[in-house]
From TrEMBL:
Protein origin, superkingdom: Bacteria
Protein name: ATP-grasp domain-containing protein
Gene Ontology molecular function, alphabetical: ATP binding; ligase activity; metal ion binding
All copies of domain ATP-grasp, residue ranges: 2-187
InterPro entries named in the record: ATP-dep_AA_Ligase, ATP-grasp, ATP_grasp_subdomain_1, LAL_C2
Alphabetically ordered keywords of this record: ATP-binding, Ligase, Nucleotide-binding
One Pfam assignment: LAL_C2
Amino acid sequence: MRKQLDLFGKNGDTSAEAAGGAWRFPLIAKPRRGTGSQDIRIISTAEELAEFRQSHNATPDQEVQWVIEPYHQGPLYSAECYTDGKSFYFFGITNRIMSQPPEFVEVVKTFPHAHGTPWEDSAREWTHSVLEALGYNAGFAHVEFIQTREGFELVELNARMAGALITPAVAACTNYDPYAMVIDEALGADVEVPGHRQVRGGHSHVSLYAHRLGKLKRVEGAEGLNAFPGQPTWHPAKTLGSQIEQLGTYRARIGNVSAVAPTPELAQDRAIAAAQSLSVVIE
């Protein structure tokens, strides 16, 4: 995919050995088949890269199990869209507040971020150009990217509806109905999509994570969420009694608190405030 984007000049400096074979640090290493920010490593020097290769038996010929690429610095976003290769439908941008490196878990997501702005226009055009360069026609696309000092840089392209509570946010905040669209696809019917987007509010959700290993005993404070504005709602991701066996990855996620508002910014304020009233008890 990155080689194809390189041909169209859409990939920036994302070659792991750009500029005549010289590594440009920092780099990031992640399992090729990994998910949920598991086993992510930041590599800052040539010495650390040599140590990583040695400890993981990852010579240049054997790095098929790992992706090593530039560590782009800047805020992370995702573009939510749909294209069949002929028509392109842009739902909006989801922003992210991330945990502090070297952990890379998503703490807050808000949709539709910066809608109706020149910045969103540029992000939409860039996303469309990336999908066109790839000849993408698989329908739903969840395109994650980072805005660096030099511009947008692709992180990954997922050929699916957006995860977490992003797709419910699209359905709640716009006149697009992703669920009806995917049913049309499954039935082989023409996918009915409005020609123009209408935004009708904002949606945000905050993820709560375990900070110690053990068994999930309870989540305190959920009964008091109705005291906050924005219709805050608790969405558990684990059942009581679940064993927490990892920290710093999506597997440590206990659940999400969502909130709505007339604007995405207000929804984010409300979701954060409501989420701070909850506490996770691990034994």
